Structure formats: C-alpha cells, structure tokens
Amino acid sequence: MTTRAPATSAPATRAPATSAADLVHQRVVGHSLDAPFYVSEEFLALDIAAVFARSWIFVAAEAELPEPGDYVTVTIGPYSVILVRDDEEDVRAFHNVCRHRGARLLHEPHGSVGNIVCGYHHWTYGVDGTLLHAESQSPDFDPTCFGLRTVHVRTLAGLVFVSLAARPPADFDEVADRVEPYLAPHNLRRAKVARQIDLVEEANWKLTMENNRECYHCAGHPELQRCYFPLYNFTADEVPPALRATYERFLAADADARATYESLGLPYETIEELDTRPTGFRVQREPLDLAGESFTTDGRVAVRRLLADFPTARLGHLGLHTQPNAWFHLASDHAVTFAVLPLAPDRTLVRTTWLVHADAVEGVDYDPDTLTRVWNTTNEQDAVLVARAQRGISSPAYLPGPYSPTESQVEDFVNWYITRLKEHLEG
C-alpha cells in the first residue's frame, strides 16, 4: 500500500534560513511568522534594537503623573526610563542611570520625589535632569556636563510616548495632528487613574499584539462581545445569515451614532495607516451594542461623572491602535489604555489603565470592579489564548499558517514589523 503525505496549505518549500536576516527577508506575505521570531533570544534582541529602541512607544497616561515630582519608571528591554512631571508641569523622560558610575536611580514603578537622588554616592538631580549636587569632585568638574541623559518624549491628548532613538521617527507630529481631534474631547489630560492592572502573559509580545489586531477569536470573549457588534471585517455582502439580525441592529445604531457625532462635532471616520508609515496607527469612532454607552455587561455607563461635558452618554466608543505596542478604548464615561512591553521571548507585560474624570469619586460615582470587569476578564481570556499559541509555536511540528481575510490587521502589524526589521538590518 502506498502512503501519501497529507495535503497542507503551508507556503511553498524554500531554502532553509541560516540567520535572522534570512528569516526576515524570506517571510511569506499573508502567513504567520516562522517559529524563531516568537521563541528565540536572538529575535527578542533584534526586536528591542529595531522596533522598541527606534519607534515611538506608548508608556503611560499623563494621569499617572498628576503633580510635579510624580514619576513612573518603565522597562523597555535593557533600558529603564524615568517619566517625571517637572516643576513647570511638563512631562520629562530620562534614562534611569546615574551619570557618576551608572547606578540605577529609581527602583519603584511609581512614586514622587523632590529631587532624584542616587542611593549609591548621592549624586542629586532636579526633576529637569540637572545635576544639583556631586560631593568631593575636582576643581575643574563641570556639573552642567553631567545632567541625566534625556529620552525623547511627546504627549498626545493625555497619552505619553517615548522614543529611545537618537533620531525618532519624524512622522509623530503628523500623526498627532490627525489623531488629537478624536481624543481631545475626552479630556484625558484632566483625568485620573481609577485602576491599573499588570498582567504577564506567557507568550511573545508579537503574539499579544497579533491577538489584539483581530476578532477572529472573539467567540472566546462573551463578555466583550455583548458590548460590540461582532461584524469585524465583513462587508455588507459577506455578513453570514446568523449575523443578519445583528447587522440590521448595527445599521440603525450606526445611523444614530453618526447623527450624534455630527451634531457634537466629533470626528468619527476611520483613518487606517497601520503599515504605511513608521508611526502606524488606526483610529475610528463607532457605536456600541446594548445601551451603547460603555464597556459594561448592560452597556450602560460605569461612571456617573462623564469624562467631559458630553450632553449624552451614548457615544459608543473611540478606538485607537498605535504600532508597535498599544491600543486604547474611550467611551463617554471612561478610557482604557493598554501598553505591551516584552520581558522575555515567551513573557510579555500587558499594562491596563482605567481613566475616569478627576472629580469622580470611587464608591459614589463608580465601582472599580464594575468599571474593570469586561476588559479585565477579556485580558485574562486573551492570556490563556496567547499562552496556548506560544506552546504550539514552540513545537518542532509548527509551520506558519495563512491568515484569514478577517485578520487583515494582523497582516498589517506583521508587515509593519518586518519593514522595521529590514530597515534596521539594511541600515
């Protein structure tokens, strides 16, 4: 009897890759990446050098730094960055490295300081990075030459981005000009942090991002699916029979939402430039299902005090994606920010922060558990899914598979990522 190998939809046979550069240049469009991209230390180092050290990275909300002297420390691969609000109330960013002999300066994830003092030899810096005190130096010592090394930092309607590059991508201003009109009405600069949850996913950071960029798996999120109309990437002709009633309900909600947005002067049309520029992004305003107000089990607001002076709570949601590591969801009553940072080839930090009006009172205007339930549950479900993907990809049996048409934003993310690696390797 003759046996035949089973048919597969794997890409055509190609010469074995011998290096990371080979794998980058041999990547097959429309398919997931080869296993080393997700499991090897070599690719983690390449990702830090080519992506996280050269792009604009979302790291915090301004609400995490409400007063002068408030700081947050962020770990990006081997880098540690201090974000601090200075005495002029501007957000500054510095490398978390003493200019004397390199000791780590601040060790806590957040806190407040008058000055930044090195615990080793007590070199002291102002919150503007200026060296204020260095004991027992030679007469020709010039303190102006030893301020903290700065990191490029930009704020966008209450969101803080940093770039570790000597010359950051030049398109940030253009992206900010296009995105800020969507974000500004939600008044995030005057919001406060209601809750922040750090979740470590047992998966490569790219699996975390790929998972976020599609809803092919969203049947695994019943709580979230109650809030959304589950119609992603379907055209009107492609909506399956089981979703026709949902689609009709969406059309009515969408017409109502557009009328509301136009009456309030809120931009809502989709802008999608995920893989055509260094600072890739996607922004869109759209209706939510149920009561249409917020990310809750009944769709009603979780916070009685709305983020801004909106005349109605029924604004659906504003979604923003930024490459390579963040996504944001804003409703009338609160906003949620998500930051993704690699910890190891198979471990990723997902930091989720819920923002509410600065005057909203916990226990009076909102219940933190109600506020966070839908997205916290969704994050925990996603952690299980991406951990399964990581374990499968780690098997010698893994072969890259084809993306579904509903996973177009995954392809956009991967194409953006591969472009950054090519630029780095060729540059």
Topology:
Blueprint: H1 20-25, H2 36-39, H3 41-52, E1 57-61, E2 70-76, E3 79-85, E4 91-95, E5 110-112, E6 116-117, E7 124-125, E8 131-133, E9 152-156, E10 159-163, H4 172-183, E11 191-201, H5 205-212, H6 222-227, H7 244-264, E12 271-273, E13 281-286, E14 317-322, E15 326-330, E16 335-344, E17 347-357, H8 368-393, H9 408-426
Antiparallel strand pairs: 1-10, 2-3, 2-5, 3-4, 6-7, 7-8, 9-10, 11-17, 12-13, 13-14, 14-15, 15-16, 16-17
Helix pairs in contact: 3-9, 5-9
Q: Your description of this structure?
A:
By secondary structure, the protein is α+β, with helices and mostly antiparallel strands. The chain folds into two domains: 61-156, Rieske Iron-sulfur Protein (3-layer Sandwich), CATH 2.102.10; 170-426, Naphthalene 1,2-dioxygenase Alpha Subunit, Chain A, domain 1. The chain has helices at 20-25, 36-39, 41-52, 172-183, 205-212, 222-227, 244-264, 368-393, 408-426, and strands spanning 57-61, 70-76, 79-85, 91-95, 110-112, 116-117, 124-125, 131-133, 152-156, 159-163, 191-201, 271-273, 281-286, 317-322, 326-330, 335-344, 347-357. A hairpin with a 6-residue loop joins strand 6 and strand 7. Helix 3 packs across helix 9 and helix 5 (205-212) runs antiparallel to helix 9 (408-426).
| Helix percentage | 25-40%
Structural class: alpha+beta
CATH class of the largest domain: Alpha Beta
Rg (CA only)? 23 Å
The major β-sheet equals: 7 strands, antiparallel
Distance between the termini: 55 Å
Encode the helix/strand succession as letters.
HHHEEEEEEEEEEHEHHHEEEEEEHH
CATH superfamily of the largest domain, called what?
A: Naphthalene 1,2-dioxygenase Alpha Subunit, Chain A, domain 1
Q: Output the strand order for the largest sheet.
A: 11-17-16-15-14-13-12
* CATH fold-level label of the largest domain: Naphthalene 1,2-dioxygenase Alpha Subunit, Chain A, domain 1
Global mean pLDDT: 93
Outline the low-pLDDT stretches.
Answer: 1-13
Task: Kindly estimate the percentage of residues that lie in beta strands according to DSSP.
Answer: 15-25%
Helix count, per DSSP?
9
Keywords: 2Fe-2S, Iron, Iron-sulfur, Metal-binding, Oxidoreductase
GO molecular function, one term: oxidoreductase activity, acting on paired donors, with incorporation or reduction of molecular oxygen
Cofactor: Fe cation
Protein name: (Fe-S)-binding protein
